[in-house]
Amino acid sequence: MSAFADRGLLARAGTALVLANARFWPTIAPMVSCQLKRWGKRAQRIEDPHLQRLALEKLADERFNSEVAATLATLAPPHWRRTAVEAIVAYELMYDYLDGVTELPSEDPLTQGRALYGAFIAAVQEGGSYSLPEQYDDGGYLAEMVRVVKQALAQLPGASAITATATRAAQRCAEAQLRAHAASSLGAGQLEGWAKREAVGGDLGWRQFLAGSASSVLSVHALIAAASNEHTARFDAEELDTVYLSTCALSTMLDSLIDYDQDAAAGHTGYLSYYQSHEQLADDLAASARHAVEHSTAIPNGAHHVMTLVGVAAYYISDPAAKSELALPITQSVCAELEPLMAPTLGVMRTWRAAKTIRARLP
């Protein structure tokens, strides 16, 4: 059964896709490229060779993350787009960088992780501050990203409406990330226990909450874009975060599903290890998609956020690994939930992947 009971929302989502592309390629994409070059030059000035290599590898290998995140800036009024892109790219790079840094060996991974992710939270928290452990001295690279995000947010007219919600999203994202990295030394029980406690009273099950929290940086990106509009209200920010918690849950679980064979060969199975059956996973994925679509009807630019949801799902489902014996029946349940918008979006994603493969083979 499709989540698109509202055919008007379906039509608006299709229109939003056209508008987003019309705005992204001529205006947002060059801004993103400029910001990535800026941060590449800044990363080269990191004196610690290990941290410099990590920062540069993240910039090279995960550039696509920043490009996708910045599509949300197409919602910003033209005169605020550059500021929104600046904040979104810096925040995404911070997330990717910290993801790598917190994987480094530590005697006290939870304490060290919280110290590091203090920067991630402080960047969007009013009056937020943090203190980095001495062993992670990157010559101010992380501090500069925090400063850029703070300064950009301070300029956006709707920042006061999203600050509290963005801070909560950053906090749950940080806790999920640092606990996930600590699982190798402290066990997964502390991560599962945290998710079960935090999910009490919410709309999502603890597994969905955990998966959604881990990639809630996307929720903060959406909130930054919303801060570009002076009419954004606190209720809008809260509902937007609700939509993106479900969208992020779908993203994280699909990512784990697509990477299952690779992860299993390395001795871990990611978020799929919390599921007792494939049917349970399929139900949670479909429910996450349905929940996001339903809540999108209550927020400004809901059609754009539905389009983002479908795009996220199509990105993973268009991966050849989605056709594996394990993944195929599960991804089919997601496709059924998001039809009829899913079919054309999948077509676009598969064409993009094919073109990318051809370009990679060219001399």
Describe the structure.
Helix 4 runs antiparallel to helix 6 (141-155), helix 7 (159-186) packs antiparallel against helix 10 and helix 11 (234-258) runs antiparallel to helix 13 (278-296). The chain contains 16 helices and no strands. It has helices at residues 7-43, 49-61, 63-69, 81-101, 109-122, 141-155, 159-186, 189-199, 206-214, 217-226, 234-258, 260-265, 278-296, 302-317, 327-338, 342-361. By secondary structure, the chain is an all-alpha fold. The chain starts with 6 loop residues before the first helix and ends with a helix. The mean pLDDT is 94.
Provide the descriptors you would attach to this structure in a database record.
single chain, 363 residues, mainly alpha, 72% helix, globular
